[in-house]
Amino acid sequence: MELRDYASILRRRLWIILLIVVIVGLYSGYEYYKLHKTPGALKTSQSQVIMLIGLQANSGVSIHSNYSDYVSVSESLANGYATGPTLTSSNFDHQVYEQILADESQSGSHSDLGGLQEGNIAGALSAGVVHSLVTVTATWPNAAGAQAIARAVGEVTTTHIDQYMDYVISTNSSLSTGNTRPVIAAKVVTDATAPITVAGSSASKPTLLAALVLVGLIIGIALAFLIEYLDDRIRRARDVVQLLQLPVYGEIPHAPTPGQASRKA
Questions:
Q1: Higher-confidence position of 225 and 201
Q2: Same-domain status, 95 and 169
Q3: Is the pLDDT of residue 228 over 70?
Q4: Comparing C-alpha atoms, which of 173, 157, 174 is closest to residue 165?
Q5: Are residues 22 and 131 in the same domain?
Q6: Looking at the 3D structure of the chain, how many domains does it have?
Q7: In this predicted structure, what is the pLDDT of residue 195?
Q8: 9 vs 19, residue with greater confidence
Q9: Which end is more exposed in the chain, N or C (fewer Cβ atoms within 10 Å of the end residue's Cβ)?
Q10: Are residues 85 and 22 in the same domain?
C-alpha cells in the first residue's frame, strides 16, 4: 500500500478515531477537573519545625562524667519521638489542634486554615531524625494551615514532651548515680518555616491522563485499520487487481444522476 492509501483509510474511518479520542478526552478532562477541585491533589504546602530532643540535667549536676550516656539516651529519645506513635496519637493531635486555636485567638489573625480539623493532624505530619535533631514536616493544602500545624507541634512538644516520652535507667548506668534524674526536654531550634509549595499526592496524574488521550488516539487508528482490513467491499479498480491478481482492461462509468444529462444538453 502507498502512503495515499493509508491517508485514504484514515479519512474514510476518521469518525472512529474521533469518537474514541473524544470519549477518552472527556473522561480525562473530567478526572483532571476532579483533581483540580481536590485540595492538595496537584499542589500542596509544607512547613518544617526543627527541635532538639534529649536529656536535661538538673541544676548543679555536671554531665561531663556521664556524657556518653546522655548522648545515647538523647538520640534514642529523639528517634523514638520521630518514629514512634507520638505524632499520630489522638492526645497529641488534640493538643496540637487546641494549640492552633489558641495561637489564632492570641494573634487575632483568624487565618484561613483550609478547613483544618483535629482528625487531619496525624495525616499531615511526618518526621525525620539526625542524632538528637528532629525535623517535623507539616503538609497541608493550605499554606497558612501547614505553618500553623508546624508551629503548634513545636509548642506542644516543648511543653508536654514528658507526657509522651520516658526512659529507663539501668542499674549500671552512670545516669543512675545520685538522687537526681535527668529530665526529658525539647527545644525548638528552627521555628516553623515559611510554607513552600510542593507537588501534591496526585501531581503525576495529569501526565497519565494526557498519555491516556494519546493511547486513545493510537487505539482509534489501529481500530480504523482493523475495520478496513475486515471490510471486503471493492471500491476501486486497484482493489480488483490486488484481490484477484488480474489486470483491469476497462471500467464501466457510473450512471449519471437524474437530471444531470438534461442540464448538460
A1: 225
A2: yes
A3: yes
A4: 157
A5: no
A6: 2
A7: 92
A8: 19
A9: C
A10: no
Question: Among positive and negative, which fits the CA dihedral 37, 88, 155, 136?
Answer: negative
SS (H, E, C) the chain: CCHHHHHHHHHHCHHHHHHHHHHHHHHHHHHHHHHHHCCCCCEEEEEEEEEEEEEECCCCCCCHHHHHHHHHHHHHHHHHHHHCCCCCCHHHHHHHHHHHHHHHHHHCCCCCCCCCCHHHHHHHEEEEEECCEEEEEEEECCHHHHHHHHHHHHHHHHHHHHHCCCCCCCCCCHHHCCCCCCEEEEEEEECCCCCEEEECCCCCHHHHHHHHHHHHHHHHHHHHHHHHHHCCCCCCHHHHHHHHCCCCCCCCCCCCCCCHHHHHC
Would you give the distance in Å from CA 143 to the centre of its chain? 16
Task: State phi, psi for 127 to the nearest 5 degrees.
Answer: -140, 150
| pLDDT per position as a tens digit, 99-113 | 999 988 876 667 778
Looking at the structure, tell me whether residues 26 and 59 fall in a common domain: no
Q: Which of 10-24, 79-93, 220-234 has the lowest mean pLDDT?
A: 220-234
Cβ(198)–Cβ(46) below 8 Å: yes
Radius of gyration of the chain (CA): 36
Query: Do 9 and 134 have their domain in common?
Result: no
- Domain termination residue (choose one: 168, 199, 230): 199
Q: Do 92 and 188 lie in a common domain?
A: yes
Q: Which domain holds residue 229?
A: 3-38+203-264
Residue where a domain terminates, one of 199, 232, 248:
199
